[in-house]
Amino acid sequence: MALAALALIAGREQVTTVLARRAATPLPTPPPATATPTPTGPPLVRAAVTANLYATPDRTADVIAVVPAEQRASLDGRTADLEWVRVAYPAGRPDAGAAQGWLHASAVRVDPATLAAAPVVAAPDPTPAAGGPDLALAAVMLIDGKQFAVTVRNVGDAPSAETVMTLDVTRAEGDVIGHLTIEPASLGAGQSATVVTPLTIQRPGTYRVVLDPGKGAKDARPENNRREVILIPGVFS
To answer: Do residues 206 and 154 both lie within one domain?
Structure first.
């Protein structure tokens, strides 16, 4: 019995020694944890309504894209008066293929602090057309959510004499909405006038508007006499 007990004790000592040796073997060091990078880039804004993306912060500028409602764009600048925001759409960088242009601030959802923190981008001054008056279709809008109205601006370097202007309004599909005559008016160089017409817009959609400035007005840039806009009755700007 004594020999058996001694053997049992020796066996336990051997097991203890083996375990101690195993415990002394260093375990492999796990690789250091890599921190998850924090996303960087320009802040995002979301279109509150379907809106035109203009080449410059002016509704007389060329429309380079249409941003559908609820779509996101990258904010990278604003005008000093906070009326316009410069964005890249789709959200991204212009060098990655996104179109860079201007949205009116009323057409986007953006935190006021984020908007105020955006860099101020100086807009180029429009160059007046030399050699006389040049009447342009500056804006197309709905008054009280339905009444069709336009703003005509003299972008020339001389006053326009009273002249009868006409407007042709059609839907993008080709349906004629109206042929309107605007009463004679004189506009000094750089001056604008808004004309509210008797025409009402009943259906949302894309509309084409063409201004004929009439006799005596220069038409140096025919492209500023045409506008393609999205009109949505019942939506107030």
So the answer is: yes
Residue 24, SS3 per DSSP? helix
Indicate the pTM of the whole model: 0.53
Q: Are strands 63-67 and 51-54 parallel, antiparallel or unpaired?
A: antiparallel
DSSP letters for 84-151: EEEEEESSS-GGGT-EEEEEEGGGEE--HHHHHHSPB-PPPPPPPBTTS-BEEEEEEEEETTTEEEEE
Give me the residue label for tokens 């197309």. Answer: 140
Which domain does 167 fall in, by range? 135-231
CA atoms 100, 102, 107, 111: torsion sign: positive
Task: Look at residue 108 and tell me whether its pLDDT is greater than 50.
Answer: yes
pLDDT at residue number 237: 43
- DSSP string covering 179-233: EEEEEEEEE-TT-EEEEEEEEE--S-EEEEEEEE--TTSB-S-GGGGEEEEEE-T
Whether residue 174 is contained in a domain is answered as yes
